[in-house]
Amino acid sequence: MEARLDKWLWAARIFKTRTIAADACKNGRITKDGARLKASHMVKEGDVIDVRKPPVTYSFRILKAIEKRVGAKMLPEILENVTAPEQYELLEMSRMSGFVDRARGTGRPTKKDRRALDDFNTPIFIDTDFDFDED
Question: Are 15 and 82 in contact (CB under 8 A)?
Answer without folding.
Answer: no
